[in-house]
Amino acid sequence: MISRAYQHPLNSSRVPPGETLLDVSGITLRFGGITALDDVSFRVTQGHVHAVIGPNGAGKSSLLNCLSGLYRPQQGSATLHTRAGGAEGNGSPEAAPTTTHDLVRMKPHRIAALGVARSFQNIELFRHLTVLDNLMLGRHVRMRHRLLPSLAWYGPARRQEIEHRELVEEVIDLLQIQAVRHTPVGALAYGYQKRVELGRALCLQPALLLLDEPMAGMNAEEKEDMARYILDVHELAGVTVMLIEHDMNVVMDISNRVSVLDFGALIADGTPAEVSSHPDVIKAYLGEELSA
Ligand SMILES: Nc1ncnc2c1ncn2[C@@H]1O[C@H](COP(=O)(O)OP(=O)(O)OP(=O)(O)O)[C@@H](O)[C@H]1O
């Protein structure tokens, strides 16, 4: 369980667990003659780890890019549900009014401000900055900039900085990166860098965390560690996670639900058990790996 009393909720979604958080509907994305996503629809439930799998070129990264505003699909919608209150909100989430936001019509910074955080397939950190500085930068979306007090390092700006720092320290604790907090990211082992990237996304206090192959390039031990941290983020912090992953054993172990893409189309969507026995999935992707 939680190793210390955390003061700041890392999950900013107030949608009750079990309800729909994200409704992906009929997304079609084309690049010239290539259809990267073909009428893709599925739902992500609040409180789930939701995996998206599929062979190389199936459209997984394109899908995440549509959800984070980097690609604009020609058709379809991705409706994020939010409840009033946010990360520090009071009162019953059930009683709070629901608002919907179509992510595919929004700019990346607006999507980030709603709490949709993502990590990338290739590490996108500032290598010469320390772990702590990289994590503090992850807070920028939540910071209220006020130029004058910030320059004077005075009053509200100072209090705000201290609060941000407290939250960042809690993320450091959750991901167990205390020992390297003052180390430049570029000097860290690959597994640690990926963990810092996860930490930076968490510092946004996400409503939805999008992870693009968080275990790519890791050895078995690093993968096991990362799987454990993703589960902690999910179980201890209550954050809904949508992840792309190639390692089927990991996906089956940590996911509540799995959506399978093949040539841009959704060919299966269900629990890990349902998906792993689906004939189209076995044919398209999993093959002997799962039938063995
Ligand atoms: N910016 C782009 N311009 C042109 N084609 C693209 C672009 N991004 C993706 N594609 C194409 O869209 C298809 C889906 O690519 P995508 O990277 O989403 O697949 P993926 O499932 O994430 O693959 P991988 O597992 O190899 O990362 C591929 O045919 C790819 O070449």
UniProtKB/TrEMBL annotation:
Residues 22-288 form the ABC transporter domain. Keywords: ATP-binding, Nucleotide-binding, Transport. Residues 80-99 are annotated as: Disordered. One of its GO terms (molecular function) is ATP binding. It comes from the Bacteria. InterPro entries: AAA+_ATPase, ABC_AA/LPS_Transport, ABC_transporter-like_ATP-bd, BCA_ABC_TP_C, P-loop_NTPase. CDD domains: ABC_Mj1267_LivG_branched. This is ABC transporter ATP-binding protein. It comes from Haloechinothrix salitolerans.
